[in-house]
Amino acid sequence: MVVFVMIDGLRPDAIDAANCTTLRALMSRGASTMTAQSVMPSVTLPCHTSIFHSVPPSRHGITTNYYIPMARPLPGLVEVARTAGKKSAFVHNWEPLRDLNRPEQLVYSWYHEPPLAPNYDDEMHAEAVRVITNRRYDFVFVYYGSVDTAGHAYGWMEPGYLQQCKHVDTLLGQLVAAMPADTHCIVQADHGGHDRNHGTDCAEDMTIPWIAFGPKIKPNYTVTRRVSLLDTAPNLAHMLGIAPHEEWEGSVVTEMYMDA
Ligand SMILES: [Zn+2]
């Protein structure tokens, strides 16, 4: 199984500031970089479209959180996985993510509007644990939205934001515990944030944590090359044992794999 975990709006420096023990343990268990780069604009839907299609917003044309069809469409990770006979599932609590895949590509999708409260992610998380425990899918995407929401409400790196980082870190520990031993996983953010917003090209918005672990990933390894969120889909495809699409612009981070 391959699992992709998104913690929307998680800044790398929040991992220590909020004492995120799960994330620190995953960094020891696998390979990571705390200086991975988002794309411009550093906004959730443009970022996610870039993550799943491995091209920048200048290519796919989605530059706001309001979905429009891609300027020059290309297959994303889920379409490439489907063509290869893999079953993909999405579990999320931000509705616009429904447009990340073309119709009839996912075999399972779960969404429910969350409450604006510290338990924002809890219902989605319970479903994600259930889906991973059932082990019926080759690829599972799990999206935690509450850290970003706390950033907008309290300000990035403020106590209310860090408290939410710590809460999601605890949930992440439960999610990882539910994963089969042979799972490969990437955990990352889509963008950071500053004050009560994000979307600019400043370092606080653009710098994201990026962590990969699994049986084929080197333990306790710091990635030396520059990683961008365009590299996520090629690596998830590689973990699924399928070739990246020829139009994807990101690349496999070969240095972090055991056979490198
Ligand atoms: Zn976001």
CATH architecture: 3-Layer(aba) Sandwich
Q: Structural class of the helices, strands and pairings?
A: alpha/beta
Number of strands: 8
Distance between the termini: 21 Å
CATH superfamily: Alkaline Phosphatase, subunit A
- Number of contiguous helices: 10
Give the % helix.
25-40%
What Rg do the Cα atoms give? 16 Å
Q: How many independent structural domains?
A: 1
Work out the strand percent: 15-25%
Shape: globular
Description:
With 260 residues, the protein is an alpha/beta fold. It has a single domain, classed as Alkaline Phosphatase, subunit A (3-Layer(aba) Sandwich). It is built from ten helices and eight strands. The chain has an eight-stranded mixed β-sheet with strand order 4-3-5-1-6-7-2-8, with helices on both faces. The longest helix is centred in the middle third of the chain and has 20 residues. 52% of the residues are buried. The protein binds zinc ion. Zinc ion binds next to loops. The site of zinc ion (ZN) has 6 residues, from loops.
Fill in the keyword field for this structure:
Alkaline Phosphatase, subunit A; alpha/beta; 260 residues; binds zinc ion; 8-stranded mixed β-sheet; 8 strands
Brief overview, please?
This protein is an alpha/beta fold. The chain has helices at residues 13-17, 21-29, 44-53, 57-60, 77-83, 122-134, 146-154, 159-178, 203-206, 232-240; strands spanning 2-7, 31-37, 88-92, 108-111, 139-144, 184-188, 207-213, 221-222.
